[in-house]
Amino acid sequence: MKKLFTTILLILATTYANAISLPDSLNYTARIGYNIGGTAPIGMPNTIRKLNKYTFKTNISFGLDVQKDLWGKWGLLTGLHIENKAMDIDATVKNYHMEMVKGGESLEGMYTGRLVTKCEEWMLTLPVMATLRTGNVLLKAGPYISYLGTGTFEGYVYDGYLREGNPTGAKIEMGNTDGSRGTYDFSDHMRHWQFGIDIGADWQLTKRWGVYGDITWGLTGVHESSFKTIEQTLYPIFGTVGITYKLK
User: Fold this and answer.
1) CA 109 to chain centroid
2) What was the pLDDT predicted at 179?
3) Interior CA angle at 55 toward 51 and 61, to 5°?
């Protein structure tokens, strides 16, 4: 983590130091924001009954963007973002297909009860967006590609039971202590390359400073296509709010 933030600071410092030599025809913007959202299926399946708790994580996003006006008010924007898309939730599920470990034993079947999921994705993201300038607002939309540097997808189940194999299989109780609950870790099955759509707007407040908001919707799931333990594909869906600084 220290290396990551050191790299970010070096990039920002180098870009700012060289800002006076940047071409005047291009607009350079540094941004820092906070991502709010999670990984979720499209349409809530009936196996997920209730979201009991959502915990905010350190979902910081740093970015350097280059934008050019090409055809009147229309233009293009691209850049490089270092960001974390994470969530920590507690949900109630019923007949939810899962694999887990309890007491050193691997189990698989249909789970009913409380489910805690902790997902974290530190990614390097490249957006390519069309822009429309209207007054002091820059509207933008387009695809993005992300590379997952480090990621985790893990959690545990408690206060429930697992029907081993199928809904009528042997019933295995899950308690709420470390020794009596089941744990899982699907981090090794996370997808390294992810694609999606980014829609947002930048508001220029002063000559240098502004604010922005974005919505990113993943078109690929967070897990590899061969991963079938969780029956529904989970997509990263996040909103971002933050501040911008115009370098030139």
Assistant:
1) 28
2) 86
3) 120
Answer whether 223's CB lies under 8 Å from 234's CB: yes
3-class secondary structure per residue, 119-135:
EEEEEEEEEEEEEEEEC
159-193 burial code (b ≥16 CB/10 A, e <16)? ebbbbeeeeeeeebebeeeeeebbebebeebbbee
pLDDT at 24: 66
Q: What is the pTM of this model?
A: 0.86
Q: How far is CA 37 from CA 79, 131, 142, 180, in A?
A: 22, 24, 19, 30
**pLDDT tens for residues 131-140?**
999 999 999 9
Give yes or no for a contact between 63 and 214, defined as CB atoms under 8 angstroms apart.
no
Fold type of domain 2-246 = Porin (2.40.160)
Task: Tell the residue number behind the tokens 């759509």, with chain if given.
Answer: 197
Whole-angstrom Cα distance, residue 22 to residue 248?
A: 7
CB-side neighbour CA atoms (13 Å) of 146 = 31
Q: Which stretches of the chain drop beneath a pLDDT of 50?
A: 2, 5, 9, 16-17, 19-20
